[in-house]
Design a protein that fits this description.
It is a single chain. With 465 residues, the protein is an alpha+beta fold. The protein has a domain of 273 residues. 37% of the residues lie in helices and 22% in strands. The chain is built from 13 helices and 18 strands. The strands form five sheets. The protein has a five-stranded mixed sheet. Strand 9, helix 6 and strand 10 form a beta-alpha-beta unit. Helix 10 crosses helix 13. The longest helix has 27 residues. The two termini are 43 Å apart. The N terminus is likely disordered. InterPro entries: NEUT/ALK_ceramidase_N.
Length: 465
């Protein structure tokens, strides 16, 4: 017994002395229990209550007519042993604009003392969700009443996002985080395969063409008793199985439903991967959307404890916007000619751009592109804005020599497709025509891929230092 303990044993009666020792040991255990990760989840329904216009497809000619299942905003709050927090917000929406993301992040920064790097908005890109804000502004031709309904719905979302985040932070409690990677195979490179031929090619055992990324990165959050409380999962594939007039989260929505059945009491959150040129094939039936959702859930369930790695409670978050350039901008004369185009989408974009010219005096030659990087222990997640093609995830995994690197798209700002240099030079929908629907003036410049990859590489490398 050291001097301090001998002194206490002389001064205090034996019973009191023992009580003090027990108190000290208990306090020590409490400190140990408080160290490490904490996690909490929250969720709020965001299904529109009015029959407003649906996003994702230009061919729709009427508002929604009901729902297959609810749409959600879900939030997971993470806190490291040092007290640093990060909040991931997953939304059943086709995308959000820069303006919307700035409004929401400003609200969360004010209410919860979070920095921008600690907040990420991840949209599922379901094509059976509502129009929100300015996203895909050249795609829709809304009358005054429909525009009012869209504006009213958009105005309800900040408070619902805030409620989900508030619940997640309020529910923070000790947790264990682990990471594993599964596999799902229904994503097909839509640029290099004819959709109607895919089922027969698969039946014949023939290899499909084009780059793909079938990885299913998954974050498991468990309580101190080992019960799964949250699953965050990603996959690189468009949410375009369905295109009718009922609200639903497409296959990511069904995957979340199936996972929450498989893990009772848990919350499943989806983070879309670099699937801008990947489609679920075959598609166009509810049964197929359910099938793909179940495939994801089974693949997650098949990730065993032996397949996962525990994540130490080290949290690093970074956010940066870089300037990426457009190619040659159209002249006023070109835009005036385009206003008379027989293609109503080309004409719509031209009219919008002329308004910008009149008000601002010029069209911007660049765009502020968001890149966010989180490190959770030894696992890194890269969050990219826009509809990112699969080449980015494949290249980053190779360039950084991290085969399990988690690369997400559709985060923070879905301003357009983000083609690789290869896809940009090939053209087509992802490389060129899609810019019309997003209301952007022209295609991206060829150096965009390297600008994004170089910035991600720098942020990932500095996180590891």
């Amino acid at each position: 017994m050291n001097y301090t303990l001998r002194l206490f044993s002389r001064v205090f009666p034996r019973a009191v002395f023992c009580s003090l020792l027990l108190f000290c040991f208990a306090a020590s255990r409490d400190v140990e229990a408080a160290e490490g990760w904490k996690a909490g989840v929250g969720r709020v329904v965001i299904t529109p209550e009015q029959p407003i216009w649906m996003s994702g497809y230009a061919g729709r000619d009427k508002p929604a007519e009901g729902k297959l299942h609810d749409l959600w905003v879900k939030a997971i709050a993470l806190e490291s042993g040092s007290g640093k927090r990060a909040v991931l917000i997953s939304l059943d929406l086709v995308g959000i604009s820069r303006q919307v993301a700035e409004q929401w992040s400003g609200l969360l920064e004010k209410n919860f003392s979070l920095k921008r790097s600690q907040i990420v908005f991840c949209t599922s890109h379901t094509h059976c969700g509502p129009v929100v804000g300015e996203t895909l502004s050249s795609m829709y031709f809304l009358d005054e009443e429909q525009q009012r309904l869209v504006d009213d719905y958009t105005a309800t979302l900040p408070e619902k996002v805030n409620q989900a985040v508030a619940a997640a932070i309020e529910n923070l409690h000790p947790a264990a985080l682990s990471f594993g990677t599964g596999t799902a195979t229904f994503a097909v490179n839509r640029r290099e395969n004819v959709e109607k031929d895919v089922p027969d090619l698969r039946e014949a055992g023939k290899e499909l063409k084009g780059p793909i990324d079938h990885a299913l990165p998954t974050l498991f959050v468990k309580d101190t008793q080992g019960k799964v409380e949250a699953i965050v999962f990603g996959y690189a594939c468009h949410a375009t199985t369905l295109g009718f007039y009922q609200w639903n989260g497409d296959w990511p929505g069904f995957a979340q439903i199936e996972l929450e059945k498989a893990y009772p009491g848990a919350t499943a959150l989806f983070v879309a991967g670099c699937g801008a040129d990947q489609n679920p094939i075959p598609r166009r039936t509810v049964e197929l959307a359910e099938k793909y959702g179940k495939e994801i859930a089974v693949a997650v369930e098949n990730i065993t404890d032996e397949d996962t790695k525990p994540l130490a409670d080290n949290l690093v978050t970074k956010y940066k916007e870089i300037t990426i350039p457009f190619s040659e901008l159209p002249t006023r004369s070109q835009l005036e000619t385009d206003t008379m185009s027989s293609d109503k989408y080309v004409a719509s974009r031209a009219k919008m751009l002329l308004k910008t010219l009149d008000s601002a005096g010029e069209l911007s030659a660049t765009y502020p592109y968001p890149i966010q990087v989180w490190s959770l222990g030894t696992e890194t997640i890269v969050f990219l804005g826009g509809e990112v093609v699969v080449d980015y995830s494949l290249r980053l995994k190779g360039d950084l020599n991290q085969p399990e690197l988690w690369v997400a798209g559709y985060c923070n700002d879905v301003m357009a497709y983000i083609p690789s240099r290869r896809v940009l030079l090939e053209g087509g929908y992802e490389g060129a025509r899609s810019m019309i629907y997003y209301g952007l003036p022209t295609v991206w410049a060829p150096q965009v891929e390297n600008l994004i990859v170089d910035q991600v590489s720098e942020m990932v490398s500095s996180n590891a230092e």
